[in-house]
Design a protein that fits this description.
mainly alpha, two-stranded antiparallel ribbon, 5 helices
Length: 152
């Protein structure tokens, strides 16, 4: 009877590993591309476009909420770089658990900004991402394809 249970356990572990890999790839690509798009303006990518885009974002949130410009600008200026860093870490499997937690917190921070300006649709989209990060954290123990694994 134990011979019949062993293959299903192995199959289950393989499925969890595949499920986690799919989540990691999706979240990594989504995060990386969200960071890269912050550098775009008129079909061209540059640091000048990045700082202009992030300045507009910070001013828009400050103008429509209770948050001061120094707070929104500090968050906005770091945002693109953090998204690229965390997205790359997720894709390559570099300290995956840490990258998932930090990226999830970054998305919570983005959600807070959208909550402050009462942008319900954006909050819902980001909430879905946070849920995916939470699911990935539950499955992170099945991370088999990592460049630099977390220490347990």
């Amino acid at each position: 009877m134990s011979d019949h249970t062993a293959p299903s356990v192995k199959s289950s572990c393989t499925e969890y590993t595949a499920a986690f890999l799919l989540l990691r790839l999706f979240l990594g690509l989504r995060t990386l591309l969200a960071g890269i798009e912050k550098f775009e303006s008129g079909g061209k990518y540059s640091f000048e476009a990045y700082y202009a885009n992030m300045g507009r974002m910070a001013s828009g949130i400050t103008g429509a909420s209770f948050m001061p410009l120094w707070m929104t600008k500090s968050f906005a200026l770091a945002l693109g770089y953090l998204l690229i860093l965390f997205g790359t870490a997720l894709l390559l499997g570099i300290r995956t658990r840490c990258a998932l937690i930090l990226t999830g917190l970054l998305y919570v921070g983005l959600s807070f900004g959208l909550m402050a300006v009462q942008e319900a649709e954006g909050v819902a989209w980001l909430g879905m991402h946070v849920g995916l990060f939470a699911g990935a954290l539950v499955l992170v123990q099945h991370n088999r394809f990592a460049l630099w694994a977390d220490k347990n």
